[in-house]
Amino acid sequence: MICMTSSISHVELPHSISLLEQMASKSIEKGPFTYVHSGAGNESTLRANEAAFEDWYIVPQYLNDVSFRDTSATLLGTTFPSSFALAPIGVQSIFHPEGELASARAAAACGVPFIASTLSSYPLEDIAANLGNTPRWYQLYWSNDEEMAISMVRRAEKAGYSAIVITIDTSLLGNRERDLNNRYSPLKLGKGAANYLHDPVFQGRFASPPSADDPEVIKNIVDIIFNPSLTWENLKTIKEHTKLPILLKGILHEEDARKALHHGVDGIIVSNHGGRQLDGCISSLEALPSIAEIVQGKIPVLLDSGIRRGSDVVKAKALGADVVLLGRPFIYGLAVAGEQGVEHVLRNMINDIDVTLALSGFASMKEVNSSLIRRKK
Ligand SMILES: Cc1cc2nc3c(=O)[nH]c(=O)nc-3n(C[C@H](O)[C@H](O)[C@H](O)COP(=O)(O)O)c2cc1C
Ligand SMILES: O=C(O)C(=O)c1ccccc1
Fold it and tell me: Which residues pair with 268 in a beta bridge?
């Protein structure tokens, strides 16, 4: 992999995500860039995610003392500096050789919570070792091979992850036409294999240590990642195997929010996977208000898909999200300048949220409510 601009310093990095995205397109090869940038189908959901934020105006109120501001958020008993965490993003070594280790260090430097993907390029234990004291959760693709899923949950507990995020919108991979046209599949290249290769249960199935260079091993992994047979009933099994809080990522329908409450889930993430799974589906922001209405604050509601700037975070908060997840933007930072690039994106985001809060007339993120926004006519 080439990383042509890895020597770029912090000060030279742009402050808008669109410019960073352009730089990323020149920093890495076409396959990986398209992989992060594109969506499923004709990308209508991908477009809808960002467009949905434009449907709302912030209507500020002034002459409130905003000289001291509290942008912090508390989730599942943990407080962190700003109302966002890093979305789980797999295969990060296709964007920068240090992959998740670099983004974990940047998250640690800023105290931004990190969600490690099942399909990380580095083992979850190594990622944890780079996270300092920053909160960390483990995103699980609940494998069709249950022994493997349980083994990963055990390892996540042992490595200090404090919640399990189960992604429910990926019974199989979305139809990503651009990646198919590019014949580009990071999974088939073995870039998301680390958590399997380092797993004692997985290793126990081979006479010699399994390697990403072995096509049979990779095929074996690709065959067990996803689990299209999962149902709400399976949640019981998952709960039997961990005491950690469980969040479901990929809730879009009000009925699923009701079922999540009914099944004793500890949090939900309103998400369409950044438009990478079901094309033509509802944008996350559009889905949020009615879901927040059903949840009534009983469990945390998070949102991702389309968060690009501070005003997006404030709008999501006003429509009922407790916290949002940042996805593609930090990967553009990673692609352009590794750890420094991610840290640059995080610091910009923290600052932009703070400025937006003050200019909206609020001194605390916790006070933001629907009175702050109005839908465009
Ligand atoms: C390159 C890439 C890899 C991703 N990998 C995962 C993953 O392993 N697990 C997961 O639950 N979501 C994954 N996602 C989805 C993100 O967690 C998040 O839902 C999405 O990026 C939000 O959309 P946005 O980046 O446009 O804001 C991935 C997204 C991207 C762009
Ligand atoms: O691309 C994704 O959205 C995703 O979840 C994933 C991540 C790594 C490998 C395969 C799929």
Answer: 248, 301
d(CA 173, CA 186): 12
pLDDT at 354 over 50: yes
Give the chain's domains with CATH numbers.
10-54+76-353 (3.20.20.70)
What are the distances in angstroms from CA 260 to CA 5, 133, 305?
Answer: 44, 30, 20
Which residues sit with their C-beta closer than 6 Å to ligand 1? Answer: 35-36, 49, 87-90, 117, 119, 139, 167, 249, 271, 273-274, 276, 304-307, 327-328
Q: Within 13 A of 341's CA, how many CA atoms are on the CB side?
A: 30
**Nearest one of 341, 308, 305 to 96, comparing CA atoms:** 341
Report d(CA 129, CA 344) in Å as an integer. Answer: 21
Report pLDDT for 267.
98
> Which one of 89, 96, 178 would you pick to mutate in the ligand 1 pocket, going by the greatest count of ligand atoms within 8 A of its CB?
89
Give this prediction's pTM.
0.97
- Average pLDDT of every residue of the chain: 96
Is residue 7 very low, low, confident or very high in pLDDT (cuts 50, 70, 90)? low
Look at residues 149, 154, 95, 151 and name the one whose alpha carbon lies nearest to residue 122: 95
- Cβ-contact 165, 88 below 8 angstroms: yes
Which residues have C-beta within 8 Å of that of residue 314, sequence separation ≥ 6? 58, 353, 356, 357, 360, 365, 368, 372
Residue 273 falls in the annotated catalytic set? yes
Residue 51's alpha-carbon distances to 13, 45, 47, 222, 273, in angstroms, are: 25, 10, 6, 34, 16
Nearest-atom number in ligand 1 for the CA of 95 is 1
